[in-house]
Amino acid sequence: MTADLQLAPEEIALLYGHDYFHGAEYGDYVEEKPALQSNFAGRLEEIKALPGVTSTSTLYEIGCAYGFFLELAQPHFAATAGIDISAAAAHHARTKLDLNVTCGNFIHDPLPFSPDVICMWDVIEHLDRPDLVLAKAGDSVSPGGYICVTTGDVGSLTARLRGPKWRMIHPPTHLHYFNSRNLARLLQRSGFEPVSTAYPPVLRTVGAMLHGAVKLRMGADRLYSLLSLLPGQGVSIPINFHDIMFMIGRKV
Q1: What distance in Å separates the CA atoms of residue 17 and residue 153, rounded to the nearest whole number?
Q2: What structural domains does the chain harbor?
Q3: pLDDT one-digit tens code per residue, 162-171
Q4: What is the pLDDT of residues 111-136, one digit of tens each?
Q5: What is the pTM of this model?
């Protein structure tokens, strides 16, 4: 399922400025770092347990945002790097976390090495051409290497029950919506054989949930302003509607 929009790459890039991470999409991405890294830590353990992945392996992240996953992954790999379309996010990753992150377009920009693992955390739904991104990933990853993808599952029971009100449907930032079958087919077309699909819980802070539900979905800015004053905004709660899939494919 695809949003009926025609956006130039320049228009898409403009969506992901500083405001995207501080109010427009996230309440405050930096303040959510502990919860985000808790989610990333579980995914990192899954990657480290994959056959053939060792401390000599290399990892590359597409859409690395502020670099919070790469910060966790860096000690466990021989080399790590990432790319993001957001200049503000890439700047934070480079200057605050001292990570090898560039601002650019993965389709057109060269990779610093041939990675053994490529990650795309909640990124594929944002891409105007996910097919081209995965095709390049398939051409770039080392033989026997992996691609790891998380995205919403439009075929899940939650998505089907919610229909157009499903929380993951919000163009223009989310442009494409996959189910497990067509995402697996897209990976296969790109040279990857799917090896696992899981639906792990996701930690969200109380503040992030209020921002998403009250401010963004309901548009109740005044109510959100009042609720955001309540204590416990940073408390993390595991949420699992079984509509966020984590798929891993191996290069064949």
Answers
A1: 26
A2: 9-251 (3.40.50.150)
A3: 999 999 999 9
A4: 999 999 999 999 999 999 999 999 99
A5: 0.95
